[in-house]
Amino acid sequence: MGLREFFKPTKGKIIISVLLLILTFFYITSVPGITINKYTGHGLPFYYIVEIIPLTSLGETNFSFEYTSLVFDIVFWYILSCLVIYLYNKNVLKRNKK
């Protein structure tokens, strides 16, 4: 299997990528920082939506959307899904030869 076939989009790779992207959207973490605001990040491994919550009762919650982080997330999960499909196909072919 060459690189072209490894990265070639298939239904399985796209479905796995989208599912992982959706699941990691619900993964919420606190973004470290010393400030008067509380930052929460959505997304894994890169935070593409950052929620900024002021610790004072006067402020409103703000959101920051990071396009580059979303692109990096999509590429990361697509490469991971390519690897999963590759390993799955490798094991299935190995079982069928026996």
Summarize the structure.
The chain is α+β, with helices and mostly antiparallel strands and 98 residues long. Helices cover 52% and strands 19% of the residues.
Estimate the mean pLDDT confidence: 81
- State the distance separating the first and last CA atoms: 20 Å
| Helix vs. strand class | alpha+beta
Biggest beta-sheet profile: 4 strands, antiparallel
- Order of strands, main sheet, comes to 1-2-3-4
Number of strands: 4
Nearest-angstrom radius of gyration? 19 Å
Number of helices: 3
Helix content: 40-55%
Number of domains: 1
Shape: elongated
Protein model, in words:
With 98 residues, this protein is α+β, with helices and mostly antiparallel strands. The chain has one domain. Helix content is 52%, strand content 19%. The chain contains 3 helices and 4 strands; from the N terminus they run ααββββα. Strands 1-2-3-4 form a 4-stranded antiparallel beta sheet, with no helix packed on it. A hairpin with a 6-residue loop joins β2 and β3. α2 crosses α3. The protein is elongated and about 65 Å long.
